[in-house]
Amino acid sequence: MDFQNTREYAQQLDAKDKLAKYRDEFHFPHVNGKQVIYFTGNSLGLQPKRTKAYVDEVMDDWAKLAVEGHFYADKPWWDYHERFAAPLSKVVGALPSEVTVMNTLTVNLHLMMVSFYQPTAKRFKIICEEKAFPSDQYMIKSQVRFHGLEPENVIVEIKRREGEHNIRKQDILDKIKEVGNELALVLIGGVNYYTGQVFDMKTITKAGQDAGAYVGWDLAHAAGNIHLELHDWNVDFAAWCSYKYMNSGPGNASGAFVHEMHHNDLDLPRLSGWWGHNKERRFLMEPNFDPIRGANGWQISCLPVLSLAPYLASVEMFDEVGMPALIQKRDHITAYLEYVLHEIDREVKGNFEIITPSEPSERASQISVFLHGEGRSLFEYLMKNGVITDWREPNVIRLAPVPLYCSFEDMYEFGQVLKQGILSHKK
């Protein structure tokens, strides 16, 4: 695309942007009295302005109705979570019955592993990616030890080739074939948190299942960010947090997916609780667990409605916008950011190395870049000058140009601040 690194050109792109109006739907922090350029939606999304009304509604119902709010609130708490099924299923490409909201991400991954990791003497190995997000590493190792096994004998990490930043799909497929009949589970992050690489979930899922294993995905950096077709890809299970690209608030409730092919398998192990029990018979307080046929059958406890309220506000915004429109802008604005980085690198005679794949199908709303020759002082300069970004050792910054609230002019302005920061350190 024939971009230009000028403010006027960036403003022209914003004028043509059909999603530009949603920028005003969010609260932005300010630094030195100026609205920030916010690049950390891959860690915590901005707060939608409509969120407060959703939370206030629950607070008002609690004040006026107390326990009766479970059944007589405008959005009864009893079935509050069911409002997520239709809009959230569109975000992840699922049937409404295949998605639910509950707990937090790592808790949900633990619950999914209870069902989908049942090692035997012959089939016990787990394939995951090298340098997965630490919580996934801890979770998988603890599950392995829970079964009385040693992680070094069970966990098979897909590694990057020497001198490369991203994992090759063929290497994953080859490793699945190599592990073969010993493979019990493939569990990988759909988008690598460090590099922003998007994995070919459809192909990897089929390969894992053809080998006789279950396949699940951690979609922390994927939900609300990339095109997903969990049902059609035949994914066994998945889970995601809601506070990154889906803007539901710090540490908020997680989403989970269980494919319908598992809904009627009552022999599948699970940790059960009364909120997963047959809804129509729940208050009969029966001693034997009768799971809801669907992802809701994996719920355990009464849901935290105050936490769900911000998530519902965001999910309904996503339903308004639609993933195709988000992805279209995501690809455009990410490409423009990449262009700006190359331009600034050339102007300052720098040594930037973008480690995120350049193909749109292999990256999402993130660019991770090595700033060779620069130190943490540059990151601190950016933060002090109104660019909120993420620093990872030794000298990587992660930039997430979230399409709902980032503008093309933000990309241009970031380039100018970055340029001044580098030049100021060279004086």
UniProtKB/TrEMBL annotation:
Family: Belongs to the kynureninase family.
Annotated binding of pyridoxal 5'-phosphate, by residue: L105, T106, F133, P134, S135, D136, D218, H221, Y243, W274
Positions of modified residues (N6-(pyridoxal phosphate)lysine): K244
GO molecular function, one term: pyridoxal phosphate binding
Catalytic reaction equation(s): L-kynurenine + H2O = anthranilate + L-alanine + H(+); 3-hydroxy-L-kynurenine + H2O = 3-hydroxyanthranilate + L-alanine + H(+)
Protein name as catalogued: Kynureninase
Keyword field: Hydrolase, Pyridine nucleotide biosynthesis, Pyridoxal phosphate
Record domain Aminotransferase class V: where: 168-250
EC supergroup of this enzyme: hydrolase
Function of the molecule: Catalyzes the cleavage of L-kynurenine (L-Kyn) and L-3-hydroxykynurenine (L-3OHKyn) into anthranilic acid (AA) and 3-hydroxyanthranilic acid (3-OHAA), respectively.
E.C. numbers: 3.7.1.3
Keyword Hydrolase: yes
GO terms under biological process: anthranilate metabolic process; L-kynurenine catabolic process; L-tryptophan catabolic process to kynurenine; NAD+ biosynthetic process; quinolinate biosynthetic process
Source species of the chain: Flavobacterium cerinum
Gene that specifies this protein: kynU
Entry annotated with the keyword Protein biosynthesis: no
A single GO cellular-component term on record: cytoplasm
Pathway given in the UniProt record: Amino-acid degradation; L-kynurenine degradation; L-alanine and anthranilate from L-kynurenine: step 1/1; Cofactor biosynthesis; NAD(+) biosynthesis; quinolinate from L-kynurenine: step 2/3
Alphabetized InterPro entries for the sequence: Aminotrans_V_dom (IPR000192), Kynureninase (IPR010111), PyrdxlP-dep_Trfase (IPR015424), PyrdxlP-dep_Trfase_major (IPR015421), PyrdxlP-dep_Trfase_small (IPR015422)
UniProt subunit comment: Homodimer.
PANTHER family per UniProt: KYNURENINASE
CC cofactor: pyridoxal 5'-phosphate
